[in-house]
Amino acid sequence: MMSFLEQILGDMKNEVSGLMMYSCCPPFSEIFGYTACRQLSQMFLAVLFFHSSEYVLVAAIHGRSSVNLSSLLISKAYVFAMMFALLEYVVEIALFPGLKEYWWISNLGLVMVIIGEITRKLAIVTAGQAFTHLIKVNHEEQHNLITHGVYRFVRHPSYTGFLIWSVGTQIMLCNPISTIGFAIVVWRFFAQRIPYEEFFLRQFFGSEYEEYASKTPSGIPFVK
Fold it and tell me: Where are the transmembrane segments (predicted)?
């Protein structure tokens, strides 16, 4: 009788321990289920398409020799940011899986990724030879002032597109920390870059650029 009771108590103890372990540390298959597979797949495809299409377009316009990692906005800081975003996602889906189940937020991020991608690529195609990743400090013959197409609405549509795209990738992952971090870092980068770039544009195009800038927003919030 005692051995029978001991066996029952032992089984109950094992089941309680198992439930506690499951609640604290869900199985790997539970962590990386449908939600994670879909969201991470969308993220990897978005990054892959963004940079590969960027390379193809710019290489077609300027030649392959003019394209490198830094000009495609791939830097150590960029890689670090993406790795941090991935780490945040893994930690949050393991500890707070419900946080990733807000599909209306994730789908909003996906829409932002698509809009940002289209906006940036339209900017590149519209500018053609005038588009460069690196700021030109000397006026070249093929560098014309582009004010038609998507440039009618904002002065720096490629920056607008990248800002929307980058923040959208993190909203798509339901990453609250990285969403705020990406928004601040990318905005600050362009807020510093635009005045420096436009200093030379004003030198190149004079009153023509002044008139264009006076009636067309920069495309980055709070940057004149």
Answer: 43-61, 73-96, 102-119, 162-190
